[in-house]
Each structure stands twice: as structure tokens, then as C-alpha cells.
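User: Structure please.
Assistant: Input sequence and predicted structure:
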Amino acid sequence: MVSGGLKWMCLIIGTMIGAGYASGRELWEFFGHESGLAILLFTVMFSASCLIILHISYQSGSSDYVGVLHKLMGRKVTVLYDGLIIMYLFTTSGVMVAGGGATMQTFQIPYWVGVLIISSFLVLLFVWDVNGLTSVNSLIIPILITSLLFTLVVFQWESGNALFFEEPGQRNWPAAFTFTALNILPLVAVLSAVGNKIKHEGEIWIASIGSGLILGGLSFLYNQSLIVVASDIMLYEIPLFAILNAYPYGMLLFMAFLLWMAIFTTAASGIFGLVSRVKSWLPWPAWVLSIMFLLLMIPMTSIGFSNLVAFLYPLYGLLNLYLLGAVLLYPFLQGKNNL
């Protein structure tokens, strides 16, 4: 039960921590000053959302997200959100592939070669289907979280800032709803695809509570670090590099590799959601479907990373507020026996 819960927890975190989050760009777009309460609200809503989605998936034995959407919002609205999820997964996965190519430039690798490298790894991953995805997440996510936490704690320590403090105002608390809503679409898409693989309800609680606490704590620490370098963030496409400005070049290379891993896990989760959805139409092997989607995504890779995050992420956050409300209200509307 514990190992299963940790496996799904890594899947959740891998879905959440992509280029936008790991680079700090996504957090800075939504949070910033006076956001302590917003991050606390996000932690609670995120854990509750994962718990509800996984319970629905487990009870229905789902292998894709359509059945879960039917239960959450009915058939008519499901058609709309089915299209929105496909668009979201496709565009964000394309952004991840582009980010992978851009990150490889740090290692003096040409952009298009970097795009081909991350695409090749993604295709190889899907030779093993969902088992390959969960195995890679179980390996990469602990390294990713530990390294990012270490970097942020060292930065806070050397800059002389307290890790936890209260700000006099918390006027940015509404950002919790749009930030949680932004991440609800990929959660529904990915977690709905593993309902038939969950063996015990205890796995659901471990995955939901664990991922919420880890992401909530990391978000608060990361946001506090970004506040310290707020005046320099406009100079960097990737805010994390503003934090690393005074660090040796070797540290920059290490964090670039860390960012690439975050990009890879989110691209893999997004493509997994797409593959799971279209398998009912095209019963081809997962690796063949992944090649098809990657070929369609390549034209997107010429669009600027920060511009896409700044435009698409807040837009999706607003569009997903209805879905977030449907998820959080589901236990109350359906009765206690359904949760």
C-alpha cells in the first residue's frame, strides 16, 4: 500500500512540476508578495482535488478521463472539457518539448538537437506504457524535489532571510483558486488513466496528502526566494536563474539539468494523458501514438517559453475554475458514501 501510494504521489508531483513550475515562472505569475495564505489554500484544495479524482477513478476502474468527467459535470459539459483537456495537454506538452530544447542550449547543444533528444527519450519511455512513466517518476521526482529544496534553502540561508514569516497583508489570496484550477486539468487527465491500477484505497490517501504537503511547502519556500530577487526577475526568462545569479557556473549547469528533468516528467505526463484518451479511437501501441503527437507538436517549439506561460497558464486557470468547483463540490453533491 505504501509503495503504491508513493508511486502515485510521484506521478502527481511529476505532472505538476514542469518547466513553468521548476523555473519559477508559473509561481511568479500567480503568487509573489502577500501570498502566504494563497499557498496554504492551494495546498488544501490541491490535496482535496487529488483525493476526490483518485477516489472516482478507483471506484469506476477508469483508464481515461472521460468517465470521470461524466461523473463530475455531466455529459453535455464533458464534451466541452474533453476538448479543453486535449488542447491543454497538447499545448503544454509542446511547450515542454520546446523548453527541453532550450534547456539543452545551456550545455552548448543546438536547439533542434535538444528537441530531438527529449522527443527520443519520450518515445522510448512509452515503449513501457504506464509502467515506464511511473518508474521514471519514482526515480526522478525524489532527486528533483531534494535538489530544488537544497538550492532554495541554501539561498535563503546565505541571503539572511527567515524561511517562515508572516506578512501584514494577504491580499493575493484569490490566486489560490486560479493556480489550483490551472493544475486541475492535467490531474484529471493523468489520474483518471490509472484508476484501474490502484489496488488499495490507502494508496489514494498517501498520494493525495503527501503530494499536497510537499508541493505546498516547496511553493512557499520558492515564492519567498523569488520575492528576495523580485527586482531582478524581469531580466531573466527563467526566474530560477535570478536566484542562481551569484552561484558558480557549475551550479547553473546542475540546475539546468534539474530543469530539464522537470520538463521531461511533465511532457511525459501530458503525452500519457493524450495517449490514454485516443487509444479508444486509435488502438495503436503507446509509443506509436507518442510519435504522432510529438510530430504534431514540433511546429510549436519555435514559440517563446515565457510568452506561452504568461498567456496560456492564466487563461487555462480561469477556464478551469468551473472544473475545480465541480471537483471540490462532488462529495457534497453526491453524498458521503461516494467518497
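The chain is about 75% helix and 0% strand.
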